[in-house]
Write a structure and sequence with these properties.
Blueprint: H1 3-21, H2 24-36, H3 45-58
Length: about 70
Amino acid sequence: MTLADVRRVAGRIRWYVRELTGESTYDRYVAHARAHDPEAQVMTRRAFERSRTDAREADPREGFRCC
């Protein structure tokens, strides 16, 4: 296996893990916001995650969190 093969496999694993954990969601949000309005204020990652968590917990279809 060549170094290029290792890098390609590592890149695919990294992509999969980022998709699985939701880490890439913020990157997609930033790209979308910049594409539609380059001058718009973009939320920080912390504010984005807080907003996402609040929305998920407010949705009755998602159930509730006891702890």
